[in-house]
Backbone:
């Protein structure tokens, strides 16, 4: 079965939008958790659920394309899924750090991290690198969120792709269309 690149991209955008909206919903608990710390536990619960939701979305995509998927195809979909969700989340990061969060939240967080680094036995080069990276602006936080979430997608999509492309009878991983091998 040949890969349909148009369907891959279209489905990744569609499911990525839903996934990104889940991330935005999850992030609302983080935002309110700054004033009500008990909500942070709900945020972390949703965060732990993210790879499982990615699995469910990738499995749904597998059945959308006919029930068979290769490892690389599933991995590509997972990466694109996380990327498009990260784009949605980047908008939320920008809005939060520009308009909702206290103006000194980023500066305070960086200063606290620097105090922790100075209290530890880390090399001075690392401390200098953190200090010289420049001020974090809302747009830098949003762009960094895209890179971070895409990197998580690259990593977390590997086991998802391996699980979804394996032969259900033998447990072996084969390319799509080779389910009859034993």
Residues:
């Amino acid at each position: 079965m040949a890969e349909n690149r148009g369907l891959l991209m279209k489905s990744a955008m569609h499911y990525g939008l839903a996934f990104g909206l889940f991330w935005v919903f999850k992030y609302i608990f983080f935002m309110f958790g700054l004033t009500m710390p008990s909500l942070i536990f709900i945020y972390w619960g949703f965060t732990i659920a993210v790879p499982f939701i990615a699995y469910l979305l990738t499995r749904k995509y597998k059945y959308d394309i006919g029930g068979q998927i290769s490892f690389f195809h599933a991995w590509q979909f997972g990466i694109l899924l996380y990327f498009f969700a990260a784009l949605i989340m980047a908008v939320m990061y920008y809005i939060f750090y520009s308009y909702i969060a206290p103006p000194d939240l980023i500066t305070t967080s960086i200063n606290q991290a620097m105090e922790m680094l100075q209290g530890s036995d880390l090399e001075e080069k690392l401390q200098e690198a953190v200090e010289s990276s420049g001020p974090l602006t809302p747009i830098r936080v949003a762009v960094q969120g895209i890179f971070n979430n895409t990197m998580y997608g690259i990593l977390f999509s590997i086991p998802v792709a391996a699980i979804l492309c394996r032969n259900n009878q033998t447990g072996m991983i084969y390319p799509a269309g080779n389910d009859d091998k034993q």
In short: Residues 29 and 42 are 7 Å apart (CA to CA). The mean pLDDT is 82. DSSP finds six helices and no strands in the chain. The two ends are 20 Å apart (CA to CA).
